[in-house]
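Changelog note: in this version the structure field was regenerated for every chain. One regenerated record is shown below for reference.
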Amino acid sequence: MSPKPNMSRPNVSGETPIQVVHISDIHVDLSYEAGASYSCNKNICCRPYTSSDEPGNNSYPAGPYGNPACDTPLSLEESLYRAIDALVPDRAFTIFTGDIVEGAVWLVSENEVGNDINSAYSTMKSLNLGSVYGVVGNHDAAPVNSFPPPAVDTSYSTQFVYNSLSTNWDSWIGSSSAADAAANYGCYSVLHDSTSLRIISINTNFWYKENFWMYESTMERDPAGILAWLVSELEAAETAGERVWLLGHMPMGASDAFHDHSEYFDQIIRRFDATIVATFFGHTHKDEFEISYSDYTNQTSATANMVAYIAPALTPTSGNPTFRVYSVDPVTFAILDYSVYYTNISSPNYQDGPTW
């Protein structure tokens, strides 16, 4: 990395904020069946795994809009997008921090992954979600978590995932950035419209402890060269005076991340903390945030240098279906505030249609 220049973050402009939506971990189950049993011995239910699970043959029929024992039905996904369009009609854009595919991981095939990705993004477009900046999640592969870096000698490839995402993102990020996403393991960098805000989307799966392709006898410090690519993009953004939102799936301060790669990432954050506005993740299915520090032995407001905004999930397996809306400075793109919207899945009227 180049030496850190003497620069600081700009002050907020005081102008009228814009709104940006954050959704994550939608985990849509296209095999969900209303009336199928929500009581089963699998990690997700509401599917006719056996004849006794089928609609009409069980004592625990799932409603049309989902159940806490089951991943997201298409009806709930559509309800989410309609709610966003109704509640946040003036949104500037939406960020989606990954995980489309449902949780019946022992059944997921490459064909299902491709179909699930295409269905999710087609539904976003058909229900007028507007511009969406996405990332690749750890579930968005078959087998789950399986993202071999190019240095690993294997005939298995997740290129089909990157190609599918590239095709679906093209209309939002442009053909050049979409081509970059296909060639660069799902990573891309693009300016939002005609602003100074640069969106950088990274594939965090190469730093994930459950990506077993990473357990080589000599572990790579920078699998697929993503950290080096990220540094080059940030250096160019810094030179151009751009502001950067950094998107990924897995929070790099989470215990799911390899310790060394988390440290390398944090070094990048410390170097570019005047250019990166904030980082955005999902994966944990929790409504939370993380704070990075320039000095971890003295964790105070004076040494805090970055916030990771971690969005909760849509899937009912993690509680009430949820999305976030950020209030954003239109000049500096700083996060000023955010609101969390949810629908109460425990409401006696929930199955009549979610109220957000």
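Spot check on this record: The chain has a mean pLDDT of 96. The chain has six helices and eleven strands.
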